[in-house]
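for the recovery benchmark. tokens below, seq after
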């Protein structure tokens, strides 16, 4: 059974759940090779997607019981018409302390100032290559310069600290690790390398595409565990455990302005510290990204809504079961869940 202690949501494992990843659309500007087939996927109809009012009501119910961080996802959340209005609505929800957004940034440049003024705190930006041709191949048509324009606009608008997310693809972009990491050397951003997970389209990729994030430390040997806040900077090559921010293990090097993060859902499973829930664009509450379980919340209010939230928490598993190359048990691909 799950429980609410002192207003906080706790699952059956005793984990306090305070983070919601809120998908606003299953549509995207890209067809990334690890996310969608080249021909695209069947999309939700307009009537299948929750209205802004419905999404806000669900966030209000969750925030009343301890959810403090909300991240807007997709698909690509910036394709949702009126996204600035939704940011403004969610910013007004009592209890929400941090409002963030994950984007590929190609639509971000003209919206960055409006989003910041509406109350968005910061953005995470997907950036899987710094080579224009390779970026186009991975995304199946994306323009690297559009993403870089979005990054610059986010910085100018104060949507910081910026976090750049790179999905590691063995034999595709792993040769760019030093170049990507160097962004954190020269700029006050976090560059985070994420292990590829066998979910949706990625589950059918060759095994050599799945590489551990430890390759980053091999490719950039000067990295050392980043000091926790208030500690002194470690010397290069020092021993010790990396400090963590959420699911990312953080590293840096003397003189670097930013940090490198490793997100290792496969090689260093972090389920024991999972504090998140996911809400799909059509109102399904997923207690675990890789579980088939989800609880429909659309159309509910009051005690009925609370009871279904509690049921979802009770379904949150202790850990995922993707060890040994087993694929995710999720019934949906990532674009229909929210990255």
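predicted aa per position
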């Amino acid at each position: 059974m799950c429980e609410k202690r002192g207003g906080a949501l706790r699952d059956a494992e005793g984990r306090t759940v305070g983070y919601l990843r809120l998908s606003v659309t299953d549509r995207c500007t890209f067809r990334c090779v690890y996310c969608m087939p080249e021909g695209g996927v069947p999309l939700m109809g307009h009537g299948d997607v929750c209205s802004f009012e419905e999404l806000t009501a669900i966030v209000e119910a969750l925030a009343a019981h301890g959810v403090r961080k909300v991240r807007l996802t997709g698909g690509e959340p910036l394709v949702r018409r009126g996204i600035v209005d939704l940011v403004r609505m969610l910013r007004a929800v009592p209890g929400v302390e941090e409002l963030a957004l994950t984007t590929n940034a190609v639509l971000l440049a003209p919206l960055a100032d409006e989003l910041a003024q509406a109350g968005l705190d910061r953005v995470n930006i997907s950036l899987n290559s710094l080579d224009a041709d390779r970026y186009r191949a991975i995304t199946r048509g994306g323009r690297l310069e559009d993403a870089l324009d979005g990054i610059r606009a986010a910085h100018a608008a104060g949507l910081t600290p910026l976090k750049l997310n790179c999905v590691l693809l063995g034999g595709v972009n792993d040769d760019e690790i030093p170049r990507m990491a160097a962004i954190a050397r020269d700029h006050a951003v976090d560059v985070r390398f994420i292990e590829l997970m066998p979910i949706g389209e990625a589950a059918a990729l060759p095994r050599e595409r799945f590489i551990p994030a430890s390759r980053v430390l091999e490719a950039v040997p000067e990295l050392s565990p980043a000091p926790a806040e208030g500690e002194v900077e470690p010397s290069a090559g020092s021993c010790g455990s990396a400090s963590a921010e959420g699911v990312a293990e953080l590293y840096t090097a003397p003189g670097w302005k930013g940090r490198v993060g490793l997100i290792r859902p496969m090689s260093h499973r972090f389920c024991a510290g999972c504090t998140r829930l996911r809400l799909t664009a059509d109102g399904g509450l997923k207690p675990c990204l890789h579980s088939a379980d989800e609880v429909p919340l659309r159309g509910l209010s009051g005690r009925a809504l609370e009871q279904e939230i509690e049921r979802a928490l009770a379904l949150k598993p202790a850990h995922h079961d993707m060890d040994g190359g087993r694929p995710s048990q999720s019934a949906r691909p990532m674009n229909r869940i929210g990255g």
